[in-house]
Amino acid sequence: MPTRALVFDFDGTLADTESAVLRSWQEVFRDHGTELPMEAWYAVIGTQHTTPAMFALLAEHAPGIDPEALRPRTRAHVLKLLEDLGPREGVRDYLEIARARGIKLAVASSSSGAWVNPHLERLGIDHYFDAVLTGDLHKAKPDPDLYLAALDALGADATETIAFEDTPHGVTAAKAAGLTCVAVPNAITASLDFGQADVVLPSFTAKPLEALLSR
Prior knowledge:
Blueprint: E1 5-8, H1 17-31, H2 38-44, H3 50-61, H4 67-81, H5 91-100, E2 104-109, H6 113-123, E3 131-134, H7 145-154, E4 161-165, H8 168-176, E5 180-183, E6 199-200, H9 209-213
């Protein structure tokens, strides 16, 4: 059956925003005299629980902190780190080829629309997508709701759709929705277990989209 739709995760997949977010949290923890355990980060990466989990963990090491007072500072720091960030290498080629072939495109992200949509616009890739599904309107991954919503928005069947993810939580969501899933880990997630994925690529440049579609 030909592939008629592609659905991409955003953070860490289309753009490596996760590196900047992790770096920002690491600096917050160090400012409070402690280190952020990577196992705690890996437990929530790709879900909607990152910020509350990080504040809860920080409170264990620095009692009395005010999360609401820290929130604007941490967000501003992340946005500063992301100012010069572009799409991951090879992403734009995938999107161009998909559109040239008439393949429908969507984003399915656990992050909020207020986070995802401005970044897609800033990266100059927002116009490629027929639909953008976000975690403020749907259950976050690893629940399959975002992928099911993407299929509905595109009018596509799971059997003719490929998902692209960078975290095991994301892969779990895509597979639960019945999609073929290609994992394209980034520098932070490369060491995690992607055994559930149908294909694992070290980067988008490792295999052209045409070769993936003919697989």
